[in-house]
Amino acid sequence: MDHKSKYILGIETSCDETALALIEARSSDEVFECRIIASLIHSQAELHSPYGGVFPTLAKREHEQHLQPLLDKVLQAQSSDNSNETTTKNNNAIDAIAVTEGPGLEPALWTGISFAEKLGKEWQVPVIPINHMEGHIVGSLLHSDKPDGKWQQLKKLPLPSLALLISGGHTELVHITGDSNQNFHYKIIGSTKDDAVGEAFDKVARMLGLPYPGGPHLSKLADTARQNGIVSTIKLPRPMIHSKNLDFSFSGLKTAVLYTIRNAEKTDNLDDKFKMGLAREFEDSVSETLGSKLNDAIEQTNAQSLIIGGGVSANIELCNKFVEIADKFGISIFIPSKHISGDNALMIALAGALNNNHSQINRPLRANGTKRLS
Ligand code: KG4
Ligand code: ZN
Fold this sequence. Notes:
It is a single chain. By secondary structure, the chain is an alpha/beta fold. The chain has 11 helices and 11 strands. It has helices spanning 45-48, 56-82, 106-123, 132-139, 197-207, 215-227, 251-266, 272-301, 316-329, 338-341, 346-354, and strands spanning 6-12, 17-27, 32-43, 96-102, 127-131, 152-153, 161-166, 171-180, 183-191, 305-309, 332-334. The strands form 2 sheets. It has a 6-stranded mixed β-sheet with strand order 5-4-1-2-3-6, with helices on both faces. Strands 9-8-7-10-11 form a 5-stranded mixed β-sheet, with helices on both faces. Strand 2 (17-27) and strand 3 (32-43) form a beta hairpin. Helix 5 runs parallel beside helix 7 (251-266). The longest helix is centred in the C-terminal third of the chain and has 30 residues, at 272-301. The protein binds 5'-O-[(R)-(carboxyoxy)(hydroxy)phosphoryl]adenosine and zinc ion. 5'-O-[(R)-(carboxyoxy)(hydroxy)phosphoryl]adenosine binds next to helix 5 and helix 6.
């Protein structure tokens, strides 16, 4: 083991979470280890709630206000940790900064990038641009997300692997190849043609009068329907389930829900029971659609493992479906903890520490709203 460790500061501002994290990482040819010193998230969800979605200029202003106070807390955590003998270093300098460059909302991304570049200059350390989606992939490999300062290795990912990334902004199937946990290559083999799955959850939730972000609320309603044996009288479509490719589409499903609600209003049928049934039917449709594509993708890539990432991976019903599929193929599945499933900076710091993209260091950074994994 090469005991020369590095402190990596992670910064994430791609959407409506301002997040900072600090890890210490060390690696040799065979083993990568890290320990979490701090992982802080300031969520703006409540602030954006009245708009029914993320309002970019408001997100930018909030990020600008919260980055420095969060950094102060992270550096405080590092100081208290420094007396801890588990560290292999004797000063509390930061060795590198990992920052989300995209994808995401560009005004929001720029706040994190500018902040990282300012710190990089001040501390004379490299700034590593990170693809947010890679963060969602590698985050799932942590054994623990606790900032307890304890060294941990990552879970070994059987390769080739397949990641299903499902969030408010993305629905992507990523084929992962490589020769070890420290050297991954990514290829997007399927993505949404229109709305992301989380976006569809949020929009349908809004139609049903649920607060933003509606995904968890809608899921709860669907669960209540299941517990009470309530089924929808209306069957919703399973979009693109029979198409040959691995792409998704959720806007037709969303529109089908809209028409169903309008019809129910006209006939005075839009009561709580109807809403519950519809929420259940919507979740079932998403589950079958994602499940069917995942199934095809495993067959096509001979994947040996599955990673589920992004905020929607907090959905238990969907995860049950993914586990069922993984079991059917006899492959392992990695589902992130709650802290890691949503946007966070721990996954960004980790991606920076693994740094699958060495060549990217020391180039000018640029917010890229549609940055793709490669
Ligand atoms: O990854 P994330 O925190 O932010 C980005 O979009 O990048 O994902 C947030 C999305 C929102 O659309 C939210 O409604 C959805 O994840 N979400 C859920 C659940 N928890 C969060 N959707 C369905 N069921 C859930 N339990
Ligand atoms: Zn995300």
